Amino acid sequence: MPNAEIAHNALQTLGILLSFDAASLESRSDPQRASDIWLSFWRTWLSIGHNFVFSFVAASSASTNGVGTTTSATNSGIPSTSDRVTSNGPLVADTATAQPVKCSMRIPDGPFFTLYFELFKALFPRIRGSFNLDFFAEFRGIIEQGVLGPLYAANGSAQQLSTHFSTVCSTSLVDDSGLTPTQKAVYDILVLFSNEMQNGLSNIQGFLVPYIEMLLRLSLYAVYIPRPGSSALSSSSTSLFGQVEAIPVNYIVFGEKCMELATELFKIFANYEALLEANVMQKMIEALRIPLAAKYRCQCQSTWLLASRCFIDVITVGVPIATRCSPSTRAATKSRRSSATELDVWNVIYSTLRDFLFCPHHPVEALSGEEFQLHEA
Predict the structure, then answer these.
(1) Domain extents for the chain?
(2) Which of 155, 57, 71, 56 is nearest to 107 (CA)?
(3) Angle at the Cα of 350 (from 253 to 369), degrees rounded to 5?
(4) 105-136: pLDDT as tens digits
(5) Mon2 C-terminal domain location, by residue (predicted)?
């Protein structure tokens, strides 16, 4: 990673380029050329993102394996763009896989991540028409890992990275009840996408399902900070509770906001064919089950209280739709699912209610009568 000041100045320069009047540029040049310029900008944005995500994984892998180099970025949890071509031309090549990378690669600081994500909000309107599922796959990986960048950077040393980041999570950060600038920049992007989904653009709604899946993953940052590159966040993650010493309150707030955003989108699009085919209601419940099963082991009780409200919203909207499906539709849907890896949605609802109502964990402090009634309600 170059000098921090140089990196910041480079991002600010890119921001200046984005501030140019796009309409004027397109009127003075061939529309295809203008489109190519913004797609080139998009590939540059991707390249920067892949580089800093690789730095997370390289540092973590070196610490875990006790070696000085790592030879592949394919474990970063982000789909490789090498050898992939879309209708708009090749995406940025994943050249990091070609050579070993020193584990001493520095992770950028918080202001860098803020500047970086702020660029996307200005860039997106210029590439909206070309934004497809391949683009979203790249974007998703960078968002999921990048929002944790300041947390990883705050650790300050690759040697201190632990498997579940208990040392990182206890690092002193700006820890008030709001969002950090980086989290705010990422959340603004998420709101932008949610609004675009509701505007009905076909190419944007085409990745509605993976977008909700991304929101669900981000929502779980309120209860679990994953290791860099990890893509495993599911109902099986309940076994991980208690291994993270302290999640900064900002990440809890951020995760809860993502939970609300996912729930609102589900309520709007619950009857949407793509959501029905992808069993999104089941995925929603499986994600909500994690804080609900943890209950009093959540760092903040607001997390499981919100999860309980979201759970009620999801089943209130989703169950009538599921029960309206004809037997033939349900059979066709089940035939597309792997019974070895997915529980039937009704079993998931039952398991979630059971784990929540008969939670073995107890409050850290005794509850008042009023608090007890609130929790039981």
Answers:
(1) 1-124
(2) 56
(3) 55
(4) 577 888 899 999 999 999 999 899 899 999 99
(5) 89-376
d(CA 262, CA 287): 11
> Distance between CA atoms of 70 and 58, rounded to whole angstroms?
6
Neighbours of 156 (CB within 10 A): 12
Q: What is the 3-state secondary structure (H, E, C) of the chain?
A: CCCHHHHHHHHHHHHHHHCCCHHHHHHHCCHHHHHHHHHHHHHHHHHHHHHHHHHHHHHHHHHHHCCCEECCCCCCCCCCCCCCEECCEECCCCHHHCCCEECCCCCCCHHHHHHHHHHHHHHHHHHHHHCCHHHHHHHHHHHHHHCCHHHHHHHCCHHHCCCCCHHHHCCCCCCCCCCCHHHHHHHHHHHHHHHHHHCCCHHHHCCHHHHHHHHHHHHHHHCCCCCCCCCCCCHHHHHHCCCCCCCCHHHHHHHHHHHHHHHHHHHHHCCCHHHHHCCHHHHHHHHHHHHHHHHHHCCCHHHHHHHHHHHHHHHHHHHHHHHHCCHHHHHHHHHCCCCCCCCCHHHHHHHHHHHHHCCCCCCCCCCCHHHHHHHHC
Q: Enter the pTM of the model.
A: 0.77
- Closest among 136, 280, 289, 314 to 209, alpha carbons compared: 280
- Over the stretch 157-213, which tens digit does the pLDDT of each residue have? 433 444 334 333 333 344 445 899 999 999 999 999 999 998 877 778 889 999 999
Which two tokens mark 35?
A: 């489109």
Higher per-residue confidence, 121 vs 154: 121
